[in-house]
Specification:
The chain is of the alpha/beta class. It folds into 2 domains: 385 residues, Metal-dependent hydrolases (TIM Barrel, Alpha-Beta Barrel), CATH 3.20.20; 113 residues, no CATH class. It is 33% helix and 20% strand. Strands 1, 2, 3, 4, 5, 18, 23, 24 and 25 form a 9-stranded mixed sheet that branches. The protein has a 6-stranded parallel sheet with strand order 9-10-11-12-13-17, sandwiched between helices. Strands 6-7-8 form a 3-stranded parallel sheet. α4 crosses α6. It starts with a strand and ends in a 14-residue tail after the last strand.
Length: 574
Amino acid sequence: MSKLDVVIKGGTVIDGLQTPRYKADVGIADGRVARIGRIDATEGREVVDAAGRVVAPGFVDLHTHYDSQVFWDPWCTMSGWHGVTSVVIGNCGFGFAPCRPEDRDRAMLTVSRNEAVPLKTMRAGMPWDWVSFPEFLGSVERTPKGVNVMAFVPLAPLYAYVAGVDNAKAYRVTDQQLETMCELLVEGMDAGACGFSAQISGEVGNVQLDFDGTPMVTDCMTDREVIAFSRAMGSLGRGVAQLTGTLEVAAMMARESGRPIIWNALLADGALNQHGGAKYTHRDALKQLAYLNEEEGLRVFAQALTTNFVSEFTLEDYNLADTVPCWKEACLGTVEEKIVKFADPVRRQAMKEVHEERGGLFGAGYDLTEIKVHWISSDVPGAQELKERYEGFTVGEIAAREGKHEIDAFLDVAVAGQLRVGFATPMMMTPPEAMKEIATSPVALPGVSDGGAHTKFVTTARYPTELLGYWVREHEIMSLEEAHWRLSYYPAVAAGLRGRGFLAEGAPADVVVYDPETVDSTPQERVWDYPAGEWRLIQKAIGYDRIIVNGVTTFADGECTGATPGSLLRHGTD
């Protein structure tokens, strides 16, 4: 008998299929699970002691924005640290293909605003060796990867490529232009895309805007356009669409395409996320989802926010207050222009009125008095004095000490620090009973990780670890068997990701080995590991002994091995 590449000894196997857990050894060879059962350690070139550990399939993260980051970070961290072995990019209709060379900067400007990916980093880190979407997939395939990657065809680049962004916003598109875009969608899916994605949030009230503060080109899509794209995907008899929008539009897409829809986002009542507040109470959303799936026969999955929400932000490049006109206007422009705006007493009065009317900073539920001045950049004039005076204090404490309205106290500190001041919100805790209702609902897919986006503000890509450690271990909202099914196999099925998300002989060896008693996220920290010297906010993970992608270890005890065994997954063939 030939040698196995890896033997994982003595672990508790949870296979992702809701099979009751059992103790067994797992043997890996040639990138696949070769054997599950009793295996002698001498049969493996490498042996992993998994006593007291869970051995489970790697996690599938359906909602990421690693479209640019994959080119400079093969492991797509944070996701790669938290047991994710397959990611889907191109969500919300945002991306970089197709794109002509002369339109590249506009595309990066757009993503720098709506998903808050640093512009300098994208300019420095992306190869831009493509024009068409199939060429983009080819570039991703050539790029060394520490995770598997599958992609949606995002719709915004199709509008830019065929009609021009400004023309499409002003006049929408002609029948011929729409037909051409549908042909490009089919071309992208023929090349391996899993479907299409769009943000359809209307002209007002949406939080992810274009670089100039106007709605995204997809936000104002007409029914005619939605139906055309849905039918184009349906003509292939495969695929899935991802929608950030309303359940009514999701239902229309499902009816017209005959294909599944992944809808964002299902939030527990009172929860906040990076896309703003929920459009529905979670119970109303669940009722609608049950009707669509069980009565009307439409397959609509719900991406559920399954992390407690905490944010750290600066006003230097903040984009998550765009639902409030006075804040949106102040947050647009250069840093110099923003400093002037935030110091303006007229603008501040409007902000105070919103604050009093809606309650909470940005009208979003953040208690401004509890927001803390976490850090002030050391390179601003008078940094040491500012640090001594303000760092570690809440806005409420500063306002009381200086006899100011809390909006004035908040903005005075930001302006004094030239907007290079990090503010930290308290953790907004979701009650366990509410989380259980959304996370265990029949159509819920845990996540809304947004990995690769809003990287200076949120760290929701930790969601697999938080589900296993906080929600399952500490609050027992579901069994480990169900948690692994929801983290791996169920999202793989939803996205049409063939053969992934479970442990079985012959399946690709995407595997995590972890300690269920200690698995956890580390505290938030800032790291300067992006191209062009940019920083991001991260949370790493503890408790993972091994993360294995296609049979090769990418992380051992939290340390990256440098291996890049990930593959481009082409929908319909992989």
